[in-house]
Amino acid sequence: MSGRSAFWIGVVLVAAAAALAGIAATGDSVTVDEPSHLVAGYSSLVSGDFRLSPDHPPLARWLLALPLLSQPVVWKPEGTLAWRSGDFLSLGRIFLEEWNDGQRLTSVSRIVAIGFLLLLLITVGVLARKLHGPGGALLTMAVVAF
DSSP secondary-structure letter at 92? Predict the structure, then answer.
């Protein structure tokens, strides 16, 4: 297999992974832990307050919550018992189900996860090509993509 045809097959694999992830990001429902991670990330980004699940490293949460800064978001935690007690599970549900359109906010935050998927896919392809040639790269990329 020529390097040129392997490159274009790799491009198709990246595009297919992006399309499938995009369809899932906008069509699938919110998972059980997304509200808690999203509200903890958003909370620490906008307020600098880490009371919501301080035991978890914040970087991934920040990255997933970053797109929410460009969205209209209702954020009024001060009067809630969940905020005062640091109950990130309850506050996450309130944040996405009562105050905001949770499906919209979750779909927007999933764009970051899709970006990481594509970055992983390209990185794995480049490394596999160095180790196993174009065929090995395509096989590895196909496994990651699908």
Answer: H
Instruction: Please choose, from the candidates 140, 113, 135, 146, the residue with its C-alpha nearest in 3D space to the C-alpha of residue 124.
Output: 140
User: How many other CB atoms are found less than 10 A from the CB of residue 108?
Assistant: 20
DSSP tally for the chain: helices H, then strands E? 6, 0
pTM for the full predicted model? 0.80
H or E stretch covering 123: helix 102-145
At position 37, the amino acid (one-letter code) is: H
Taking alpha carbons only, the member of 143, 140, 71, 144 closest to residue 111 is 71
Q: What share of the chain is helix, strand, coil (3-state, %, to 5)?
A: 80, 0, 20
Amino acid identity at 50: F
Quickly count: other Cβ atoms within 10 Å of residue 44's Cβ.
19
Q: Please tell me the least confidently modeled range out of 20-24, 29-33, 81-85, 124-128.
A: 29-33
